[in-house]
Amino acid sequence: MDLDSLRINGARLQHTLEEMAKIGATPAGGVQRLACSDEDKRARDLLVSWLREIDCEVTIDTMGNIFGRYAGTDPSLPPVMSGSHVDSQPKGGRFDGILGVMGPLEVLRTLHENGVRPKRSVVLVDWTNEEGSRFAPAMVASGVWAGKLDLQWAYDRTDIHGKKQGDELERIGYKGSAPCEAFPVHAYYELHIEQGPMLEAKGMIIGAPKGVLCLHWYDIHLEGTANQVGPTPMEGRNDALVAAAEMIIKVDQLPAAMGGNMVATVGEIHNYPNSRNIIPDGVHFTIDIRSWDDDHALAAFDKLRPQMLEIAQRHGTPIRIEETWKVVKAPFDQDLFERVYATGVKLGYPTMKWVSGAGHDASYMNQVMPSAMIFVPSIGGRSHVEVEETRWEDCEAGANVLLHCLLENANEI
Ligand code: GLV
Ligand code: MN
Ligand code: MN
């Protein structure tokens, strides 16, 4: 058959995404499918059943990663691979991650119904816990698979209720038996929404990101002295929340103080005992620093650290700084990156080269195999929110680019 004219079925992709969006649907139109939750399990079960319908061999590894292999004609050749994640943020959207799993599923369905068997097998993957929102860090399972994070360490990560990731994986029935370790892969593509405003602003439909920023996570713990708020004078208090507030302002000011390309955010905070009439005696908050320059991000924290120590000292609130996670910037494989760009142009979509500010499993894949990503626009640049939106025709366009990138790599020796 004429492979050049092959296209995915946009209506079927839309229907598939809509079915998935029912799992963990939130009242404001988003989804909540936290890693290793019951909703995550239901989405995984549905994915596995869909993979089996098109004769894919399904394997689950010890980190819960799901692989669906669509057999090529030469099993001796390393496969091509594409995937993302079915887990979501607590109030997440209907496209982040899931498009990068349903997109390749639609590609496999298209190949299957047309009887197309490329030389290399095509493997779809769902990576466990990309978001890192319930169990930090993010991208943990692709990190273990790539040999960059330790399996037992990943199992031992706990959520705010003290539940361990490994136990929760077992509870939902997805602690598989295949070893969680990299196997040879010829090329990895991840289809994703941009999660930023640039494609829409430039009137583009396809983005070819040249890579993913580095990502550094820290956890800050402050200890204060609790007391009754009424009788206790303002002087001499050790208020952990006031100290945290000063530190958060410093984090927000950090990118401007450092210059260059950088963002810094405090997105999570826990205050103890969290009662309006008790001086807080414990605060835990997170810091997320991202940049295209690993050294610049490290230098930023080197600048911040003494400022936080000074604030803690002044308030009499002992501080503990945890360096939770660092992932280096991922400049994608030049050939695959150019292939994404050229394929977007060839298929007639307005296409631009760009960079990814969001973290993706492709960052870890990029460390062990040639990798690249395909972006489609986020309406209003909104993501990690329930109103996250991408036009159905843009999802279709992204899946068509994925189809042709995968086919080219799958048929080359
Ligand atoms: C992942 O979603 C991230 O960019 O934090
Ligand atoms: Mn994502
Ligand atoms: Mn996300």
Draw up the topology in text.
Layout: H1 10-21, H2 38-53, E1 57-60, E2 66-70, E3 80-84, H3 99-113, E4 122-126, H4 140-145, H5 151-156, H6 165-171, E5 187-193, H7 198-201, E6 206-212, E7 214-223, H8 240-258, E8 262-265, E9 269-272, E10 282-291, H9 294-315, E11 319-327, E12 330-331, H10 334-346, E13 351-356, H11 362-368, E14 371-376, H12 392-411
Helix pairs in contact: 1-3, 1-12, 3-12, 8-9, 10-12
What does this structure look like?
The chain is α/β, with parallel strands linked by helices. It has 2 domains: 3-213 and 329-410, 3-Layer(aba) Sandwich (Aminopeptidase); 214-327, 2-Layer Sandwich (Alpha-Beta Plaits), CATH 3.30.70.360. It has 12 helices and 14 strands. The strands form 3 sheets. Strands 1-2-4-3-5-14 form a 6-stranded mixed β-sheet, with helices on both faces. Strands 7, 8, 9, 10 and 11 form a 5-stranded antiparallel β-sheet that branches. Strands 12-6-13 form a 3-stranded mixed β-sheet. Helix 1 packs across helix 12 and helix 10 crosses helix 12. The structure holds glyoxylic acid (GLV) and manganese (II) ion (2 copies). The site of one manganese (II) ion has 5 residues, from loops. Glyoxylic acid (GLV) is lined by residues 131, 138, 358-359.
